[in-house]
């Protein structure tokens, strides 16, 4: 990549090649990447594998830039949640990230004040 007008512009962005769980466990000794503990016991690993099999159809919803100050977004969220309630197995996890307001948060003119921001929750 190169730096152009103060912005780094990569030539290519790529992910590492996919590898099997067995290859990862061999390379990292059954490390628990979530808690950071050095290794999982055989019993704990078996328990996690059983949980994974039971959860094969589990869904997650990940959404970014959910602007709560937008009536259209709030309407879409109502539709999303209404649909999820009617599902035989609703998503197990919702992740909302990014900005929650179309305008910057702050107390200056043109910004979303803390009072206004709180009204959207």
Furnish the topology, listing elements before pairings.
Layout: E1 2-4, E2 7-9, H1 21-28, H2 42-54, E3 60-64, H3 71-85, E4 93-97, H4 114-119
Parallel strand pairs: 3-4
Antiparallel strand pairs: 1-2
Description:
Strand 1 and strand 2 form a beta hairpin. By secondary structure, the chain is of the alpha+beta class. The longest helix has 15 residues, at 71-85. The protein has helices spanning 21-28, 42-54, 71-85, 114-119, and strands spanning 2-4, 7-9, 60-64, 93-97. The two termini are 42 Å apart. The strands form two sheets. A two-stranded antiparallel sheet has the order 1-2. A two-stranded parallel sheet has the order 3-4. It contains four helices and four strands, in the order ββααβαβα.
Beta-strand content estimate: 5-15%
Read across the widest sheet, the strand sequence of neighbours is 1-2
Terminus-to-terminus distance: 42 Å
Mean pLDDT: 86
Fraction of helical residues: 25-40%
Please count the helical segments. Answer: 4
Spatial extent as radius of gyration: 22 Å
By secondary-structure content and strand pairing, the structural class works out as alpha+beta
Uncertain regions: pLDDT < 50 for 5+ in a row? none
Number of strands: 4
Order of helices and strands: EEHHEHEH
